[in-house]
Specification:
heterodimer, A: four-stranded antiparallel β-sheet, globular, B: four-stranded antiparallel β-sheet, 0% helix
Amino acid sequence: EVQLVESGGGLVQPGRSLRLSCAASGFTFDDYAMHWVRQAPGKGLEWVSGISWNSGRIGYADSVKGRFTISRDNTKNFLYLQMNSLRAEDTALYFCTKDDYYDSSGYYSVWGQGTLVTVSS
Amino acid sequence: DIVMTQTPLSLSVTPGQPASISCKSSQSLLHSNGKTYLYWYLQKPGQSPQLLIYEVSGRFSGVPDRFSGSGSGTDFTLKISRVEAEDVGVYYCMQGLHLPTTFGQGTKVEIK
């Protein structure tokens, strides 16, 4: 069964850091691009960051550029999101998604259940 | 960034009746490879989003044939031929042509 399981969310103070993880199983992880998409409480979907199959192409939303870093470990089948200098507006449910191509296409065929990040003092 | 604009933002539909959602992009989503990178996702209450339609009109695996997508360039439509109770949720269009990937605001569909 193809599965994505996020972890690492929690309550964190403004200005602090958090690292999200996404464990992938049931498919050949290093064949596909991966993404993080978030959803603030009661709001719509916002793409956060994406990484190609070999980490050769990486992109970020303007709202997180310079603060967040996406990475992947193809030997362990894990996707990560290092989040620094967190702000209240980063509060959201963070989803890990699998692209169906080696590079970013928008074809997100599998989604995790999400991990909640709350930034508050 | 490519801006995606959906209309309407909410829809109340009688079961068995059709429904239609429009999505317009601020620039063409047609790639030089001939593909158009427009997708439709549905987020049911309390669930993660799920892919419905890929590349304008391709129905994703397991998606009922009452769902159909159409359009080209910058104008796209998602149609549900006969709405069922299980179709409630928020529908999003999304473009994958250029990073950053961008979503429409979402259209909330409810049953009358």
